[in-house]
C-alpha cells in the first residue's frame, strides 16, 4: 500500500484526466463526480471551495474538495472547514490513497489554523463511515439533506 500522494491544482492541462477519474458504480450514490464537483464549486463561490486533484506517481487517482476557511455564520455550511468531496478512482482504491489524502487535508487545515473539520455521508451499504471513524470523526447528531454530519477535532 502506498501512502504518497500529491495534491495538485486543476488546470486546463490536467482537467480532462482528472474528470475521467470515476468511483465504482455502487459508490456513485455516495459521492458526486469530479465534473459535477467542479460545477458545484463554480455555482457556490460563497462557500469558499478549495479543490485539488489527487496524484500518485504523476497519475491522477482522485479528487478532494473542501469549504475552506468559511466565515462563521455562513449559510449552508456547518463549520469553517468542511470536507465536501473526496473520491478515489475505482482502479486505485485499497492502496491507501484516500487515507493519505485525508491525512494531508487535515495537516493543511491545521496549518491554516483550523481546529475542526466537518464532513457528512449518506448512510447505506458500503458507506464511508468506517473510513471517517478511523480518523476520529464523530457524529454531531445533525442530519443535513439526509446525510449524517461528522466532526473531527484537530487539536
TrEMBL record:
| Regions annotated as coiled coil | none
Annotated Pfam families: Acetyltransf_1 (PF00583)
Q: Which GO terms describe its molecular function?
A: acyltransferase activity, transferring groups other than amino-acyl groups
Top-rank taxon: Bacteria
Domain (N-acetyltransferase) spans 5-155
Q: Which InterPro entries match?
A: Acyl_CoA_acyltransferase (IPR016181), GNAT_dom (IPR000182), Sper_AcTfrase_N (IPR027455)
State the protein's name: GNAT family N-acetyltransferase
Lineage in the entry?
Bacteria, Bacillati, Actinomycetota, Actinomycetes, Pseudonocardiales
